[in-house]
């Protein structure tokens, strides 16, 4: 028997970095700022809604496209957020998290050999989903702009990524891991190119409500002229309601694309957990739900400020996130001052710095080069998640301050 039994198309992807860093974090009793899940529970009214749904007998397979109340709640939520009117039952598919929606889109809408333009760094499932469909990614790199106030992309590079084989653009805004919120002008350029090349857009908007700059609101590309008919918008409950383990997501698209999404969805999972769908409908449709999201957004804004300031004070080069609950920070100045190298006398990369923080400070982060096609692009950054309690963030900062401070004193 060969050593690995994994199918060749999945072998390049190995173990997800999230699983890897979580194991390391546990081993070193580290504070986990790596994987993006809250260390607090979602709202009580939602837990009660799920318990009630179980109690009153919503426990059998749901309709494959979602329980009617949830499809209707998503349609209304979508419209309130600036989307157009959609038929909740013909144009919305409920999936097991956005993760399944992404896989269903790739498997249900792409042909082998199709090209997909995506922005790197990318959420780690993207490349695997594109590969599962036999399609080919074409990466456009997001880099800090000149004044390092935000991440941006080069228009020429984006134009060059489109070829006659381009079938889709995979767009994530607000963007994990950079925290970038795409501007209306950037979206208009992407929309123009999509229309010119006759491509579809898969818009992953799971962080749609986690934005912090009034001047940089979240805009759905589907709301731009000519885009509703070629966009599949994906989102989920997890980030917005602090229930990442519920895995309730959805895809909104015109009927022809919805047919493709459902063709895959019916064989991937058929349907998502019924009682959680009923509770999700309560989250999206109730005043309590809206109040929860607004408060969460205010809390995250404070935690973003705290962590960004603390990291800057420690010597990291923070590029302020406009959205999501992540900060990408350049570790070069810190790793240089600590005298860290990659073992070959070269400057420390993100893995070296991340391992040092786990082992010496007891703080786990993500080395983001795993999110790049070209690993060199990501080696000087670390990704910190701030979807944690204020005391967790304070403790993490204290630990880093102590570890970095004492390492510098030893060297001095
Ligand atoms: C950009 C992005 N898309 C999709 C997902 C997955 O969403 P879900 O938990 O709803 O499957 C995540 C989760 O971290 C994400 O960051």
Shape: globular
- Uncertain segments are none
Mean pLDDT: 95
Q: Biggest sheet, open or closed, and with what strands and sense?
A: 7 strands, mixed
Order of helices and strands: HEHHEHEHEEEHEHEEEHHHEEHHEEH
Instruction: Tell me the CATH architecture of the largest domain.
Output: 3-Layer(aba) Sandwich
Which value, in Å, is the CA radius of gyration?
21 Å
Tally of distinct domains: 2
List keywords for this structure.
three-stranded antiparallel beta sheet; seven-stranded mixed beta sheet; Aspartate Aminotransferase, domain 1; 2 domains; globular; binds pyridoxal-5'-phosphate; Aspartate Aminotransferase, domain 2; alpha/beta; 13 helices; 412 residues
Can I get a quick summary?
About 40% of the residues lie in helices and about 15% in strands. The protein has helices at about 15-25, 45-55, 70-80, 95-110, 125-130, 155-160, 185-195, 255-270, 275-285, 285-315, 330-335, 350-360, 390-410, and strands spanning about 30, 90-95, 115-120, 135-140, 145, 150, 165-170, 200-205, 230-235, 250, 315-320, 325-330, 365, 380-385.
């Amino acid at each position: 028997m060969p050593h690995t039994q994994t199918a060749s198309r999945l072998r390049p992807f190995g173990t997800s970095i999230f699983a890897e860093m979580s194991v390391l974090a546990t081993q070193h009793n580290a504070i986990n700022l790596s994987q993006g899940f809250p260390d607090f529970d979602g709202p009580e009214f939602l837990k009660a809604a799920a318990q009630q749904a179980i109690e009153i007998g919503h426990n059998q397979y749901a309709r494959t496209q979602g329980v009617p109340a949830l499809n209707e709640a998503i349609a209304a939520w979508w419209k309130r957020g600036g989307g157009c009117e959609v038929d909740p039952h013909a144009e919305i598919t409920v999936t097991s998290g956005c993760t399944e929606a992404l896989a269903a889109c790739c498997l249900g809408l792409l042909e082998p050999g199709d090209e997909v333009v995506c922005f790197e760094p990318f959420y780690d499932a993207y490349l695997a989903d594109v590969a599962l469909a036999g399609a080919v990614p074409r990466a456009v790199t997001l880099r800090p702009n000149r004044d390092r106030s935000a991440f941006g992309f080069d228009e020429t590079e984006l134009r060059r990524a489109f070829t006659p084989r381009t079938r889709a653009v995979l767009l994530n805004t607000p963007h994990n891991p950079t925290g970038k919120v795409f501007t209306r002008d950037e979206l208009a350029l992407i929309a123009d190119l999509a229309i010119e090349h006759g491509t579809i857009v898969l818009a992953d908007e799971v962080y749609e409500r986690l934005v912090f700059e009034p001047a940089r609101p979240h805009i759905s590309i589907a709301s731009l002229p000519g885009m509703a008919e070629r966009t599949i918008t994906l989102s989920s409950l997890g980030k917005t309601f602090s229930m990442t383990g519920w895995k309730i997501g959805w895809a909104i698209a015109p009927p022809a694309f919805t047919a493709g999404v459902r063709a895959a969805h019916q064989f991937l999972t058929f349907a998502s957990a019924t009682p959680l769908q009923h509770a999700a409908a309560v989250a999206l449709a109730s005043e309590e739900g809206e109040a929860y999201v607004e408060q969460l957004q205010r809390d995250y804004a404070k935690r973003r400020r705290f962590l960004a300031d603390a990291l800057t004070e420690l010597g990291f080069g923070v590029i302020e996130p406009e959205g999501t609950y992540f900060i990408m920070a350049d570790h070069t100045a810190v790793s240089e001052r600590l005298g860290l190298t990659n073992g070959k006398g070269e400057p420390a990369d993100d893995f070296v710095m991340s391992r040092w923080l786990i082992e010496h400070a007891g703080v786990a982060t993500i080395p983001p080069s795993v999110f790049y096609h070209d690993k060199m692009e990501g080696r000087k950054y670390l990704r910190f998640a701030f979807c944690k309690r204020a005391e967790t963030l304070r403790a993490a900062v204290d630990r880093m301050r102590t570890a970095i401070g004492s390492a510098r004193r030893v060297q001095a």
